Amino acid sequence: MSLRSHQLRCIGSGERIAPETVSSDFRDPASGELYEVEYPWSESRGDAAATNKPNASALRHLWAERRDSTLPIDQSGVWRYRDLLPILNDDAHAITLREGNTPLYDLPRNAKALGLDFLLAKHQGMNPTGSFKDTGMTAALSVAAERGYQWVACASTGNTSAAMAAYAARAGLRAIVFIPEGKIAWGKLSQSMDYGAVTVQLKTDFDGCVKMLTDMVKKNPIYLLNSVNPYRLEGQKTPAIEICEQLDWQVPDHVIVPGGNLANGSALGKGFGELKHLGFIDRIPKISVIQAEGANPLFQWFTNAEKMLHPVTADTRATAIRIGNPASWRKAARIIEATGGWCEQASESEIALAKAQIGAEGIGCEPASAVTLAGLKKLLKSGHVQTGERVVLLLTGHTLKDPEYTIDFHKDLLATDIPEAAPFRKPPIVLEPNESAVMRALEAEMAVKV
Ligand code: F0G
């Protein structure tokens, strides 16, 4: 078997299939379970994996060298690591917008306020279309293009659709997007139109959009690019590699991610797991997932220790994660349990405050990303994070994705019931063009203590 070949392994039965034979909804027809990509060197291959392992120190060196290359696939922060995601028959088929390569910022003020020595934010909102979805989309859409599909599609709360539309445009493929009417941020809606996708606003929620699309792909030659597509996760595992590389191959203790459809936490877990299996790192960070209180089926599953997930009718202003029936919940639950992480929820007020606190460090993110800081506070309180731990928050979307939310916060229209939020509010001040009026406003501002 060549290093390039891969199979799809059902996460329920463990049964392996050839990639070309997978059903159009990416589910095992018998069990309804999802697949994951398995390589000859994957840990799940048991003894076979030992003889096929790529060499960690050679790869570290190669990846560092590629930083100086002018080749688009070397400049991509996903394809630079292509040795660990050999999913294309020919690397020249990669569709890239130079995704990845996102900054790992420190958050000194938030760290101090929480009594932490080490708090970092991996800002995936600094990707080409402003969210972490680009890392997964470059991978899965390249597979679609290589396999000769003309049409790609997704159901989305806005970021997947923005990413898919952009990569489809680059590849010259036709794209169709299903989004819940009136329930996504304008910035995201505008992107899918800008990149030329057929944008369908369905009069239902995200979960209704998924149902409709799943039925459609079974009857038409349309390639499904939701995160049930296991190639999405191959791209989304690369920030785990990038974080380790940025920390000079030191491993953080805890990585905290927002949870919506619940693919991302498991993608990062797969990334860290593969790095450990191949000898790049000697341990895996705990991975915790934070949901919004109004869209919290995994949190409920976790705290009730039930074996079945009960879908909820989702409602949150963090529209990116307004998902009541998450497709990848089993994958996420498995990674949280395997790494010793935890699942928490954050209220609307806690999300709003956390977003303002991240913004006040000059970074900014969309509300769905801010659940990570809100969740961290709770994990510290409950003892699931210790103050000595090195924590990384995954910021998944750019602050400009949802400016309406930010403006509503500052104008105090979000009904935030946390007094600590008040000093962070900076509504626009309307004044006469008169210097003394401006000076009075500045004096009032000087009196505010943050
Ligand atoms: N953060 C942002 C900004 C998102 O857009 C999403 C998901 C998540 C977090 C949650 O990630 O689904 O892997 O648990 N957005 C999807 C979309 C569902 O359609 O854009 P997840």
UniProtKB/TrEMBL annotation:
<dbReference type="InterPro" id="IPR001926">
    <property type="entry name" value="TrpB-like_PALP"/>
</dbReference>
<feature type="modified residue" description="N6-(pyridoxal phosphate)lysine">
    <location>
        <position position="133"/>
    </location>
</feature>
<dbReference type="InterPro" id="IPR001763">
    <property type="entry name" value="Rhodanese-like_dom"/>
</dbReference>
<comment type="similarity">
    <text>Belongs to the threonine synthase family.</text>
</comment>
<dbReference type="GO" id="GO:0009088">
    <property type="term" value="P:threonine biosynthetic process"/>
</dbReference>
<dbReference type="Pfam" id="PF00291">
    <property type="entry name" value="PALP"/>
</dbReference>
<dbReference type="InterPro" id="IPR004450">
    <property type="entry name" value="Thr_synthase-like"/>
</dbReference>
<keyword id="KW-0663">Pyridoxal phosphate</keyword>
<feature type="domain" description="Rhodanese">
    <location>
        <begin position="154"/>
        <end position="195"/>
    </location>
</feature>
<dbReference type="GO" id="GO:0004795">
    <property type="term" value="F:threonine synthase activity"/>
</dbReference>
<dbReference type="InterPro" id="IPR036052">
    <property type="entry name" value="TrpB-like_PALP_sf"/>
</dbReference>
<dbReference type="InterPro" id="IPR050214">
    <property type="entry name" value="Cys_Synth/Cystath_Beta-Synth"/>
</dbReference>
<protein>
    <recommendedName>
        <fullName>Threonine synthase</fullName>
        <ecNumber>4.2.3.1</ecNumber>
    </recommendedName>
</protein>
